[in-house]
Design goal:
Elements: E1 12-23, E2 26-32, E3 35-37, E4 40-45, H1 52-59, E5 67-72, E6 75-77, E7 90-92, H2 105-114, H3 118-123, H4 128-140, H5 156-169, E8 174-177, H6 186-201, E9 205-209, H7 213-219, E10 222-227, E11 230-236, H8 237-241, H9 244-251
Parallel strand pairs: 4-9, 4-10, 7-8, 8-9
Antiparallel strand pairs: 1-2, 1-3, 1-5, 5-6, 10-11
C-alpha cells in the first residue's frame, strides 16, 4: 500500500500507510509505508538506528503512532493497542527476553495457555488438552527435558527458545520476532531457524529483525530494509539484495 491508497490488499497481512514516530527531535520512523505478505518469512533489516525495533513496537502497540495508519489482516487502525493483539491474531517476542523467572519452564507456558494472570494460573487445574499442548510446544522448541527448571536457571539461548514457545502458545497467525538470533551460539541459531521454518510450513506469518544478512538471505521470502526511519527497499529477498541502492547504502560493497 502506498500513500493515498484507500484499498486494502488481501495478499498482505500487515500494511502501513505513512506511519511516523518521533522521540523529541529524533524521527525514528518517517511516514513509512510497507506491506508484509500473508504467510512466509519477512525480515526487517537495516543499520543500527534505522528504526527496526521502533517499527515492530508500533505494529504491536508497544509504542503509540504519531501519525499514519496500520492495517492488520484487513482491520484499519489509527491506534494500535497492545492488549488487543490476540484479537488480531498477532503476538511478539522482545530483544530483551521477558519471562516469569521465578517459575518453571512448564508454568511459563501454562500461564499463556490458561489465559490468566500468573498466580491464578498456577492454582488452576490443568486439563488434558492444555497439558498435551504444553508438551507439544516444549518438545517443538527443544525444552521438554527442562520443563521443571526455573526459567531463571536457563541459558540465554534456552530463554530465547522459551520466549518463542510462549509466543507459540498464543496460537496466533502473525509472529513478530525482535532479534531472535542475537547473541546465540551457532547450534541455537540452527534451532531457531528450524522452528521458524516449521512455522512457515504450517502457514504462519513470521516477521523478524536481524543484522545477519546470511540468515536474512537464507530464511526470508520478503525483505524490508530501513534507513534512518525510512524505507530503503522492499521485495523478494534476492531481488532487494541485488539492488544498487542496497549494496551501496547498506552492504557497503
Amino acid at each position: 500500500m502506498r500513500p493515498g491508497s484507500e484499498q486494502i490488499d488481501d495478499h498482505y497481512v500487515i500494511q502501513t500507510e505513512r506511519i511516523s514516530k518521533h522521540f523529541g527531535a529524533v524521527r525514528a520512523v518517517r511516514k513509512l509505508s510497507i506491506s508484509i505478505p500473508k504467510r512466509g518469512l519477512t525480515s526487517i533489516a537495516g543499520p543500527n538506528g534505522s528504526g527496526k525495533s521502533t517499527l515492530v513496537n508500533l505494529l504491536s502497540g508497544v509504542l503509540p503512532l504519531d501519525g499514519g495508519l496500520v492495517v492488520i489482516d484487513g482491520t484499519s487502525l489509527k491506534v494500535v493497542k497492545a492488549h488487543e493483539n490476540p484479537v488480531h491474531g498477532l503476538t511478539r517476542t522482545f530483544q530483551e527476553v521477558r519471562l516469569f523467572d521465578q517459575v518453571t519452564v512448564w508454568n511459563n507456558i501454562m500461564v499463556v495457555l490458561s489465559e490468566r494472570r500468573l498466580f491464578p494460573a498456577l492454582l488452576e487445574r490443568v486439563n488434558p488438552m492444555q497439558r498435551d499442548r504444553a508438551r507439544g510446544i516444549l518438545e517443538s522448541v527443544g525444552l521438554w527435558e527442562k520443563k521443571d527448571a526455573l526459567a531463571m536457571n536457563l541459558s540465554y539461548g534456552q530463554r530465547k527458545l522459551l520466549e518463542i514457545g510462549r509466543a507459540m502458545a498464543m496460537e496466533a497467525n502473525i509472529y513478530l520476532f525482535d532479534e531472535p538470533f542475537a547473541g546465540l551460539f551457532p547450534e541455537m541459531v540452527e534451532k531457531v531457524k528450524e522452528i521458524m521454518n516449521r512455522m512457515r510450513e504450517q502457514g504462519d506469518t513470521i516477521v523478524f529483525i536481524s543484522h545477519n544478512m546470511d540468515i536474512v538471505r537464507e530464511l526470508s521470502d520478503h525483505l524490508i530494509i530501513l534507513d534512518s526511519g525510512s524505507l530503503l527497499e522492499e521485495g523478494a529477498v534476492d531481488d532487494v539484495l541485488s539492488r544498487p541502492k542496497v549494496i551501496n547504502a547498506y552492504l557497503g560493497t
